[in-house]
Design a protein that fits this description.
It is built from no helices and 16 strands. It has 181 residues and is mainly beta.
Amino acid sequence: MSKLETNTIDTISGSTNLTIGSTNSSTVTFENGAVTGHMYPAFHAYLSSSQTVGDSATTKVQIDTEILDTDNCYDNSTNYRFTPTVAGKYYVYFFISAEANANVINDVSVYLYKNGSEYLEVRDNPVSSERGMDVGGSNIVDFNGTTDYVEVFGRINVDSNTPSFSSATKSTYFGAYRIGA
């Protein structure tokens, strides 16, 4: 086995791919000095202020504050959705903190919607008289890299009054990152 030591490896002028090997070759792509590939696009965002919702009404969670958005694929102001521009499989995660606002929660559901339809539901029922609950989930989602998108919806069923999605300590959040082709 040989060892290659160097300070710089560069591509031929006009090329963006560096190919390693000849038979079982791998492609390493560099863009503006950053390694690309798995894990991008990626985003993580949270709800900045509590969102009041109707009792037992399935409502889109308006997760509006980005911590990370590598490729500007998350809309944090209008549709609150992730539309990645690179096809592949993505790890998608979501979490809501539900508040009953001085009432009792009967159950909480969190939904991941893909292209406007329910893709996954995570539901929890309290063991005792709870006034707040945290419910979240995750899944692997396949995206086409052009039109596929995901959104988070929630539903809080309370005894009376108006529940909300809580923003306390960034406890309602949504994120995703690419894990492969």
